[in-house]
Amino acid sequence: MPTDPGTRTVSADDLFEFCVRALTAVGVGDADARTTADVLVTTDTWGVFTHGVKALGGYVRRLKGGGLRAAARPEVVASGPAWAVVDGHSALGMVTSVFAMRAAIEKARAGGIGYAGVRNSCHFGAAGYYANLAAAEGMIGLAMANDVPSVTGPGARGAITGSNPLAYAVPTGTGRPILLDMATSTAAGSKVAAAHAMGKAIPADWVVDRDGVPSTDPAAFLQGGALRPMAGHKGYGIALLIEVLAGVLTGAGMTRQIVPWIVGDPAVPTNHGAAFLAIDIAAFLPAEVFRRRIDALAEEIHTAPKAQGADRIYLPGEIEWERRERSLRDGIDLPPDVVASVAALSRELNIPLKGI
């Protein structure tokens, strides 16, 4: 049971149908609305509330403004044996990203490895959702995207890269893929904003203020500061690689060419870029051999000596899959900031949601 009085528990099915109704109310077709709703609600069942249904109001605002185009269809505009470039035509980022990852999967099925780069897209939510699409097909999946600069780098006072997310998913014999989804900043900007909304301090390694000085006040980021890259220069270097694969190579907007999807003019397309890779395991090893090997690796990690006070060593994604099982069984405990966002959208569109 939730302990925060502002938390509300909703069923995943009810939340899914709310998202579908909200999107179709602003002109999105049923299939695209269901694709988008599945991305957002799955993310919330994982407990990643910064990238789930909380963002729906922002997408609705852009759909109303025209910067997101409800009827747009993503399209493969160039391709080769193992690659494709997808133009999203400013469709919802979830719709374009699912389309592109499926294109990468088909290329991998034919040639072992597939890459699909995306231009003219928008914020796509949780990168891990798309990586997991490949894992569900018996493949290793990677997903990444660029964004407006919000992260500083070595020697810089302000932001120079986006928090450019990277995710990977690896199928296992247990049915639960190994799944990592991370920003290349120490923390996502949405987490800083959420802390600010709740009046909470943040760790000292999350942000710098406008003078480049580390701060525990989330307002420092919102008032002209920047996020700090994860692992210092290493995170900065990975963010640049993602910018190359998702932005430079695809023809999408790069760094400050991207329109901020939350605060930017809702009538203007954001032109985010993204990249998706799929590796067909069967092209390298028989599936059963791979499953034995990956499960042996997992067992080796699980049974490694544990630090004092630790009772378990988790593989990436295990916590999220266990949260999802609980959420599907018992309902999703939406935190107060998500409740507020969903309630505002419910009032705006006159679409009720049980529990909110």
Description:
This protein is α+β, with helices and mostly antiparallel strands. The chain folds into four domains: about 1-65 and about 330-355, Malate/L-lactate/L-sulpholactate dehydrogenase, four-helix barrel (Hypothetical Oxidoreductase Yiak, Chain: A, domain 1); about 70-185 and about 230-285, 2-Layer Sandwich (Ribosomal Protein S8, Chain: A, domain 1), CATH 3.30.1370; about 185-230, Hypothetical oxidoreductase yiak, domain 3 (Wheat Germ Agglutinin (Isolectin 2), domain 1, 2-Layer Sandwich); about 285-315. Helix content is about 40%, strand content about 15%. It has eleven helices and twelve strands. The strands form three sheets. A seven-stranded mixed sheet has the order 2-3-4-11-5-6-7, with helices on both faces. The chain has a three-stranded antiparallel sheet with strand order 9-8-10. Strands 1-12 form a two-stranded antiparallel sheet. Strand 2 and strand 3 form a beta hairpin. Helix 1 (about 10-25) runs antiparallel to helix 2 and helix 4 packs parallel to helix 5. It is globular. About 50% of the residues are buried. The model has no long low-confidence stretch (mean pLDDT about 95).
Strand content: 15-25%
The overall pLDDT average reads: 96
What is CATH's topology name of the largest domain? Ribosomal Protein S8, Chain: A, domain 1
Structural class: alpha+beta
Low-confidence stretches: none
Question: How many H/I helices?
Answer: 11
Largest sheet: 7 strands, mixed
- Helix amount: 25-40%
How many whole angstroms does the radius of gyration measure? 20 Å
What is the number of domains? 4
* Straight-line distance between termini: 16 Å
CATH architectural label of the largest domain = 2-Layer Sandwich
